[in-house]
Each structure stands twice: as C-alpha cells, then as structure tokens.
Amino acid sequence: MSLSPIQTLERTRRLIDDLRARTAETSWLEFKENNADGPLIGKLVSALSNAARLADQHFAYLVWGIRDGDHEAAGTTFDPATKREQGQPFEIWLASRLQPGLDFRFEEVEYHGQRLVLLTIPAAATAPVEFDRTGYLRIGSATPRLSDHPERLRALWAKLQPYAWEAGLAAQFLTGDEMLARLDYANYFDLTGQPLPDNRQGIFDRFQADRLIQPDVGGHWNITNLGAILFAKRLSDFGPSIARKAVRFVAYGGAGRADTVTHRQDGQRGYAAGFQGLVDYIDGLLPRNEHIGSAFREERPLYPPIAIRELIANVLIHQDMTITGAGPLIELFSDRMEITNPGAPLVSPDRFLDSPPRSRNEALASLMRRMRLCEEQGTGIDKVLTAVELHQLPPPDFRTEGEAVRVVFFAPRRFAEMTPEERVRACYQHAALKYESGQRMTNASLRDRLGIDPRNASQASVIIRQALDVGLIRPADPEHPRAGYVPFWA
C-alpha cells in the first residue's frame, strides 16, 4: 500500500533530517539553493542515478533550499511546477531527455518554516542513465561524462547485471510493529530452522541479513519485494505490483476451460508462508487410484506428489517478476494439470533437464532451497521425470507460449492411448534421464518406461527410429548400434 499524504510528508521531513545530518555531500546526494538551470539539472539526475547504483543505494537525492556549506535550511525560489524549458513544462522536458526512463519525483516541502524542494531519483536499474544521450557520474563536486571514466563504467555495469526485482521496495517507512504485522516472522524462523529470538531486534537482524527488510529513515523500516513475496501475511497489503503475483488455482469439471469451474483459489499469503498449504490444497482435490498391495488396498494420488511440488516450486522461482499484472497459474482438468508462469524461459524447454541452472530470482531461489521448499539447484526436473517414469505416466510437455512457460502434466494413460508425439517425447526424456544418471537408453529400458510387453519390442524400435529421424536422440556409438542411445546434446 502507498503512504498516506500525512505519512509521505512525515517521511520526507525525516529523510531531509537524515540527509542534512551527513557531514558532507555523497556521490548520490546534492544540495542546491536556487540553481534552476535545466541542462545542469538533467546532467545531475543522470550522474546521481548512476552514482546511487554504484553505492548500492535505491535512490539519489537533489535538495533545493539547503546551504551547501553548513546544511542549514535557507529556503528556495526554485519551482519545478511552474518552470518551463524550451517551451515545455520542466518535468516533461526532463523526462523526455532521460534514457532509460526514470520515475523521478519532485516534492515541495515546508521544513522548519522554509520552503524546500526535494527531487527523489531512482538508482539506475537496467542500464546507465543518460541525459541527452550522454551518461554522467558524480565525483566529488564534479559531474564528468561516464565515458571518460571507463573503470567506473565497468564497475557500474557490474552492479547493474545482478540487480534484481527482489531488491526493490514493496513498502516503505513502516514502524517495527507495522513491519512485523505484515510479515509472517514465525513462519520464517520455523522454515529456516532458527530459534525465534526473544527480542524484536533479533528478528530485525535476521530479516535484514536475508534482505527481507532494510532500514528506512527516522528509525523506520522498508520491506523488500523479496520479503513481501515470500512472507506476506496478505499479499494485498503491498499493492497491485505484489498482490497480482499471487498464485491462482482453478479446477474445471472437464477437459476444457469452457467446462464448469469447480474450485478456485487466489493465494493470499507469500510464497514461502503459503507453499505447503497450497500443495496440500491441490493434493486434497486430486483424484485417487486404488492400488492393491500384498495385503491391503490403498489409495494413491493420480499424480506423484513430489512431481507436483517440484513443478510448483519451479514456477515460483523462475517466473519473470518484472511482468506486471501476471502471476503463476495452476489449472486442473479432468485429464491433465497445466502450470503456467509469466516470462520467456532463459533456456530452451527441451534443455530444462541438462542445462546449467539459471534463475531470474537468485535470492528467492536460494532462500526457498534453504527452507527445503524446492530441491537443490538443477535437480527439480530430474525428480519430476523420475516420478513420471516410475508411475508410467505420459511425458510432461514443457512449452513456451508467448511470453510464458507452460508445463502440461498428464493423468495416467496406457501406451496404446498415447499420441505418436507423446511417445517420441517420452523417448527423448527417457534418454536424457538415463544419460544424466550415467547410463544409456536401450530398447529394453524404453519398453520398461512405456509399459510395452517384451513380445512387442518392435513397437519400441519404431519409436526410437522416429526420435532419431527428428534429431532428438542419437546412437551412443555409431560403430556399435547395440550400445544404446543418448540425447542429441550429449
């Protein structure tokens, strides 16, 4: 939620207190009295934004009405609301000359009887910020071109590359009580296996160490996007950018989206706080197959629980958080489950099993692994495919659809009911799984995977030939055809 006008004014005054208390201007802070030169301001915005990223600050600040020498509030006549530059309102003129675009904000503040103007400048996020196609940097009281300092340009790019959505701010200027009211701190300590501290400062220290919160001005706190998305008691407390990333679940009465919706649930809690509840909820809706053991009848879920758990965890940690208005979607049909997450994949879907693990959300993935909500890096898809083969299910379909990744997880079907495409996909996934475990696929192993009677070995041979023809597998040793098969990338 955004701050109320009263809270905003109070935070701004506290912020100015903190800025004035600094013994000298920093690379991301500048004081002016009445200087209203448009091009100079544009160069300063570029320089301060870039300097803030180098200094690991979320924002840079330019304050009019504070004396440079003693930091006393002297007031200013500068008025960005009425100023015009080249016939345009100043803010429009400035915004049009900054690349990438910045959500900068001017505020007029009554401060100890003096009129001040505060310009809040977001730190560079995706590329160095340029004014009129030139990047600048703040060094002491100088504002040189960034290109004149290649070592600082390299350092800036190094800072920009790992900058992630997780480090952004979901809520600002909260008291300790307000912050604890929004985050499920007991769940955090339970999942991370740490004892709950007997004092509030201990909780704050652990949250800060895991980058879930950070100090704000005046003894207040900010909650990062990472903290909100993982441990929010109510995602709606953090506004649309967080709330719309809630996991949605929809169950249909048939095989299509036109069929009756039987169950619907929109997640309310953070991913970590609500993960087990979501998995249990879905598991409770899944149909069961009756299995007759040596002495007892027992019901087994239609889908392997470990596969569902891993697929959901993968969706959460690999989604593109920067796509607005979209979050993970889980849909249950009578014959399949579809799990969709926003964002094009970082690797081709047919290489999910073997490619080195990559994630857009490293801090989120790392913390979820630490809490054992997902498997170690790179092993989740292995466990999904292993469970699928153990239960002789049709092969899951990993596909890209527009700017999203969708996994289709199928209910049990006999070999005779699988499509030719599914049989070939099962062959490829089986060869890949075998190769990853140091083995090779053979006609016999493929028969076991698909439940083909040994007397029908020719059926497996046909599938292998089709997979060879489309280039998904190759002979492990062309000189010895009986040596087995490996995936095309081996």
Overall pLDDT confidence = 90
Largest sheet: 6 strands, mixed
**Briefly, what CATH class of the largest domain?**
Alpha Beta
Helix content: 25-40%
Instruction: Report the sheet-strand fraction.
Output: 15-25%
Please report the distance between the alpha carbons of the first and last residues: 50 Å
Count of individual helical segments: 16
Counted up, domains total 4
Query: Which architecture of the largest domain per CATH?
Result: 2-Layer Sandwich
Identify the strand order in the major beta sheet: 14-13-17-18-20-19
* CATH topology assignment of the largest domain: Heat Shock Protein 90
Count of β-strands? 22
Rg from Cα: 28 Å
- The helix/strand class is alpha+beta
In terms of per-residue confidence, which ranges show pLDDT below 50 for 5 or more consecutive residues?
292-297
- Net shape: elongated
Domain Schlafen AlbA-2: 25-143
Pfam families: HATPase_c_4 (PF13749), SLFN_AlbA_2 (PF04326)
Protein name: DNA binding domain-containing protein
Organism: Paracoccus amoyensis
Fill in the keyword field for this structure.
single chain; 490 residues; alpha+beta; Methyltransferase, Cobalt-precorrin-4 Transmethylase, Domain 2; Heat Shock Protein 90; 6-stranded mixed sheet; 4-stranded mixed sheet; 16 helices; 22 strands; Schlafen_AlbA_2_dom_sf; Schlafen_AlbA_2_dom; RecG_C_sf
Describe this structure in words.
- This is DNA binding domain-containing protein.
- Pfam families: HATPase_c_4, SLFN_AlbA_2.
- Residues 25-143 form the Schlafen AlbA-2 domain.
- It comes from Paracoccus amoyensis.
- The strands form 7 sheets. A 6-stranded mixed β-sheet has the order 14-13-17-18-20-19, with helices on one face. It has a 4-stranded mixed β-sheet with strand order 1-2-7-6.
- The longest helix has 17 residues, at 38-54.
- The chain has 490 residues and is α+β, with helices and mostly antiparallel strands.
- It has helices spanning 5-20, 38-54, 90-96, 150-160, 176-182, 185-192, 200-209, 225-231, 240-243, 271-285, 305-318, 362-370, 380-390, 420-436, 443-450, 457-469; strands spanning 29-32, 59-64, 84-85, 88-89, 98-99, 105-111, 114-122, 130-131, 134-135, 169-174, 213-215, 221-224, 248-252, 261-266, 288-292, 297-301, 329-332, 336-342, 397-400, 404-410, 473-475, 485-487.
- The model is unreliable at 292-297 (pLDDT under 50).
- It contains 16 helices and 22 strands.
- It folds into 4 domains: 5-161, Methyltransferase, Cobalt-precorrin-4 Transmethylase, Domain 2; 167-239, no CATH class; 244-413, 2-Layer Sandwich (Heat Shock Protein 90), CATH 3.30.565; 416-490, Arc Repressor Mutant, subunit A (Orthogonal Bundle), CATH 1.10.10.
